[in-house]
Design a protein that fits this description.
Layout lengths: L1 H24 L2 H12 L10 H15 L5 H5 L3 H4 L27 H22 L11 H14 L24 H45 L5
Helix pairs in contact: 1-8, 3-6, 6-7
Length: 229
């Protein structure tokens, strides 16, 4: 009888150990990484919204060798242009500072991070154009946009240090150890089901949601723009 109990105990320990190894492999970090990799083909390297202001620093310096930003503002998406550029394509006078420069209140930090990638791409584009490639060296063609996206993606791999107390998450700490049965059920049934639903919702509704937001922004800006302008 004792031998039988020891056998069952050893078998239970083996199953528990195997489940723990599977749990370690399918941790939430790895699941999120897998979800991140699966969504990469759907990335749209489009400079829009606040990104226009961030990107303008490096594009204006790299392409036009100044910080005027007029062409960046005129080339932006409709919701960014509304309220900044009139119907004749002229920048509104109230958007200039007392020094005669466009007001760009967006931070310069992202442009600094993008700079090494975009400078390398710009040199490559100019070299290819010299060989007859005919790629637009204007900062907006696909090589430039893809380079900025790749920089954003590569920046996600950094492991941050411990955050100060004032910056720590307001969410409660994990509830602590759970039984291996509950762990196995969560990993096999709950987590994959929720991830599938989330991914399905994202892929199906993303395009429509972005278009809806764009239309709502346009309506709001049209209602706020003075009719005499």
């Amino acid at each position: 009888m004792s031998k039988t109990l020891r056998t069952y105990s050893a078998a239970a320990d083996a199953v528990r150990s195997q489940l723990q190894r599977r749990s370690a492999f399918w941790s939430y970090d790895r699941i999120l990484l897998l979800l991140f990799l699966l969504t990469l083909p759907f990335v749209n390297p489009w400079v829009r919204g606040d990104g226009v202001g961030y990107y303008a620093y490096i594009r204006a310096l790299l392409i036009e060798h100044d910080l005027r930003f007029e062409n960046d503002w005129r080339s932006a998406n409709p919701t960014f242009v509304m309220g900044r550029v009139d119907e004749q394509g002229r920048i509104r006078a109230d958007k200039y500072t007392s020094t005669g420069h466009l007001e760009n209140h967006f931070a310069v930090g992202p442009a600094i991070l993008w700079a090494p990638f975009l400078i390398s791409v710009h040199v490559g584009v100019l070299s290819l154009d010299g060989l007859g490639a005919h790629i637009a060296a204007n900062g907006y063609s696909r090589p430039y946009r893809v380079a900025s996206v790749r920089r954003n993606i590569s920046g996600r791999g950094r492991r941050p240090g411990k955050a100060p107390a004032s910056h720590r998450s307001p969410w409660p700490a994990p509830r602590g150890p759970i039984s291996w049965r509950e762990m196995a059920y969560n990993q096999v049934a709950v987590v994959p089901g929720r991830l599938t639903d989330t991914l399905k919702t994202y892929l199906v509704r993303r395009k429509g949601l972005m278009e809806h937001i764009e239309q709502q922004d346009l309506k709001q800006l049209q209602s706020e723009t003075p009719k005499g302008d």
